[in-house]
Amino acid sequence: MKLRRILAAGLALTALSTAMTATQTEAATSRKSWVVQQIYNYNHPFAANLSGELATKMTKMAAGAFSFYRGTAHLFYQDTKNTAAWPVSWYTNTTTNGVWLAGDMHMQNMGGFRDANGNAVFDTNDFDEGYWGSYTWDLRRMAVAVLLAAEEKGISGTDRQTLVKNFVDSYAAQIAAFKGNDSELTYRLTTSNTNGVVKDTIQAADGKTRSSLLAKYTAVSSGLRYFLTISGSLQPVNSSTFSAINSAMTAYVNSIASSKRKSSSYYLLKDAALRLGAGTGSLGRYRYYLLIDGPTTATSDDVILEMKQQTDSAVAIAASGNMPAWVYEYHNGERAIKSMKAMLSNTDVLAGYTTMNSLPFSLYERSPYQEDFDYTLLSSYSKFNDAVKYMGKIIAKNHALADKDYDATLISYSMDKEITDVINGDTSGLKTETLNYALSYAAQVKQDYTDFVSAKNSGAALY
User: Fold this and answer.
1) Are 288 and 244 in contact (CB under 8 A)?
2) Does the chain have fewer CB atoms within 10 Å around its N or its C terminus?
3) 161, part of any domain
4) What span, in angstroms and rounded, lies between the C-alpha atoms of 335 and 339?
């Protein structure tokens, strides 16, 4: 039986290698009209509302191949759907094709923050694309991001390949460590078990204060706190929008579990502003900052909520219906928040969702204690290597937590066991497969980026 498994794995990898060699050549060919059409189709539905934000998005995407990749998760999943050109993994099965994914894994979707219990941690911080699919999709998307970001920072080709292998190795080792126990329930990365830029990120988040966040975005006049107007960042909302947000607050509060719900006065809406220029992929959707009263009537403990428009997960492009819409009550705001709750421990107690003007929104605290991960600080192979290993561990934790540990009525399996078993000790094969895919796809991203910049510069309609 063991020999048969070895032979089967060998044949599988030979077939994969042949397929990847074939697509490696194709990966560098231009598909400009297709890329332009896909970008237009994805972004155009938002053009009537926030065209200026879409213009900002295109400018950000034009900054480099990694920035372009960040803004085009939909292209990644269009390609993932095309299994003739981009082969499925040999290291998955029906069960592990139903893992709860973050969906848009790249370095900028991780960071430092305090969890609801006050622990300063490094973890995933964006769940807009949360959905069910193959665990290998989170690995592949991050692996491509590693190659692109490391190349941007001048890391050599050989070292870039090693970074991807070490990332996958870290993931596989950590998911296996979770098998047969419940250690994923308490697992976290803190300053005590990290180093380098990841540790610095955690420390930076933990060193922040509520007063500094409030001072950045708000001011107090006659005893009342209100949002500042900040060019390109914060814009006042009109009275009708404020009224609509205020009306949507009831459904938001009701979406929070009663055991975590604060007193009604806590959620009193004091001011609201349109947030501009934040992120990349989600630019073009409505994003608001809401100022609420917080625990007391004093202005010093006011709380800022982020209210973000949600749409269908890009992962669904490759796995339509894989996560039945009833799971999230046909509400994409709930899908994003459920994904957050499934993959994080001690989740933000203010996380919830609502509907405004028939659009779904997620809400959560714009925490004073958070620090985005800055990949540009990874100035050497050593710093990159530390970071990608931690990221592998975090993705393993996500997958291990978001199973029967979260809600056995939704996912009845122990995914750490299922994933470990389907890898079946062949981490080397998984590393080779993921690297081959990432190399080929990174080449495609760079070609797509070149074509995008050319189209943008020539005035093509991109939204």
Assistant:
1) no
2) N
3) yes
4) 6
Whole-number Å distance between alpha carbons of 41 and 64 = 22
* Same domain (yes/no): 240, 329: yes
**Which tens digits make up the pLDDT trace of 236-285?**
999 999 999 999 999 999 999 999 999 999 999 999 999 999 999 999 99
Question: Phi and psi dihedrals of 236, rounded to 5?
Answer: -60, 150
Tokens at residue 78, please?
């269009």
Exposure b/e, 327-351, CB count within 10 A at least 16 = b: bbeebbbbbbbbbbbbbbbebbebb
Amino acid identity for residue 6 in this structure: I
Rounded to two decimals, the pTM is 0.94
Burial tier of 200 (Cβ tally within 10 Å: 0-12, 13-18, 19+): middle
Please name the residues in contact with 431: beta carbons below 8 A apart, sequence gap of 6 or more: 164, 165, 168, 169, 172
> Which one-letter amino acid corresponds to residue 57?
K
Is pLDDT of 461 > 60?
Answer: yes
Cα–Cα distance for residue pair 69/57, rounded to 1 Å:
12
Average pLDDT over residues 203-228: 98
Q: What is the DSSP letter of 186?
A: T
For residue 437, how far is the Cα from the chain centroid? Answer: 20
**Measured at the alpha carbon of residue 111, what is the angle toward residues 54 and 414, in degrees to the nearest 5?**
105
Q: Which domain holds residue 23?
A: 2-50+69-205+372-457
Q: Three-state SS for 245?
A: helix
Please indicate, yes or no, whether residues 237 and 355 belong to a single structural domain of this protein: yes
User: Are residues 381 and 289 both part of a single domain?
Assistant: no
How many residues in the chain? 463
- Which pair of structure tokens corresponds to residue 22? 């074939």
pLDDT tens-digit series, residues 125-159: 999 999 999 999 999 999 999 999 999 999 999 99
Q: Which tokens hold the place of 222?
A: 């006659």
Q: Whose CA is closest to 103, among 60, 151, 65, 135?
A: 135
Q: How many domains does the chain have?
A: 2
Claim to verify: residue 431 and residue 363 sit in the same structural domain: no
| Contact partners, residue 39, CB within 8 Å, separation at least 6 | 72, 75, 452, 462, 463
The two three-digit tokens of residue 218, written as one number: 């708000």
